[in-house]
Amino acid sequence: MRFRLTPRETSFYDMFAASADNIVTGSKLLMELLGADSSARAEIAERMRAAEHAGDDATHAIFHQLNSSFITPFDREDIYSLASCLDDIMDFMEEAVDLVVLYNVEELPKGVEQQIEVLARAAELTAEAMPHLRTMENLTEYWIEVNRLENQADQIHRKLLAQLFNGKYDAIEVLKLKQIVDVLEEAADAFEHVANTVETIAVKES
């Protein structure tokens, strides 16, 4: 890690950790959605919406701190990028839950549980990684594993699309379910964007 003679604003680390912890909360709500019947899904969507608002608050707090800090722990554009990518994850997860409720989906296609399991694992890894930004140590395995998970998510997504277009579902149902699985895939992509941003920061700070 590069030695610095100037002091640094350290509250960013805590805010990134809080944002990532909130994503874990969102991933647990996604898992809860899998086992819920249609009558319980609206309440889960409300809790997910609250988690998404908490994520927005965390992101705005980082931006406010960034605008008011003279010295930052790493490049300003990287702080902005990392905060934005974390926020994107919550946005996609909340959108997926909301679509399930709005579309009155009776049953999610087989394979969606695998998508959500990948997201849950990526959320855990991301939350574990954020505290290591203080030292920039022990992060390599994190971004390697998240990239592997994103590749796995791609494969699951392609299989889901093949399943949706196999003639089992009517055209309207295909449109609904495809939008949901596409948004979940975007969440997986967003986790990879976070990991790639962390890798960029670590390389700059080495």
From TrEMBL:
It comes from the Bacteria. InterPro entries: PhoU-like_sf (IPR038078), Put_Phosphate_transp_reg (IPR018445), UPF0111_domain (IPR052912). It holds the Pfam family PhoU_div. PANTHER family: UPF0111 PROTEIN YKAA. Belongs to the UPF0111 family. This is Phosphate transport regulator. It comes from Streptomyces cirratus. The lineage of its organism: Bacteria, Bacillati, Actinomycetota, Actinomycetes, Kitasatosporales.
